[in-house]
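Before going further, learn to read the protein records used in this course. The integers have meaning only within a learned vocabulary of local backbone shapes. To see the layout at work, look at the sequence and tokens printed below.
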Amino acid sequence: MNKWAFLSDFDGTISDDDFFYYTAEAFFDDNALKPWREYLAGEKSHFDALKEMFASLRLPQDEFDRFIAGVRIDPRIENVFAICRDKQIPIYIASAGCDYYIKRLIGDLIDKFQITLLSNRGEYAQTSGLTMIAPEKNDPFYDPLVGVSKYKLAQTLKNKGYKLIFAGDGAPDFESAQISDIVFAKKILLQKRQEANLPSRKFESFADIEQFLKEEI
């Protein structure tokens, strides 16, 4: 019998869009977005760009938490997590964002289904904004560009003998998808996989993953 694990990106995969895009649209002017342009130009790491921009937020704590609560989460994820639990498939969520907003959005599900979350840490205060904290450099999943490495987690799971189901949406997910056995892809990840003529399962929502787990695993 195959031993499966499920690994998912968070921003734009479990949530409908990256938390950065939510904050950019709501709070960042052209000057505040300078670090992102520097990242796109290859002048700054993804982690440093997000850290700098998030640190510029100055909302009261309760207002910021209400803003986070407005992020849309795929309504079928609990069904997917429940099937994984019933089929004894361990669940991992890996994110180059931070756990401050992830735990406020799905922390109850993380606890309920004993999900392993790999992400940068986050702390919020009105005076200092959202502070992103990368893992220590000696952490096995540390990545200097994004803080945490989904690829290293995926490789660890493969080394443990798991066949890997991966869900993602962005260019940074491409490396992890390369070593996964089943890839659910959308947005940029799907485009890159198609351009590379690599097999992928296009998905619009976690209902597609739910159907796969019910019928094929």
Remarks:
- The chain has one domain: 4-19+70-216.
- The radius of gyration is 17 Å.
- The chain has a mean pLDDT of 97.
- Residues 4-19+70-216 form a domain with the Rossmann fold fold (CATH 3.40.50.1000).
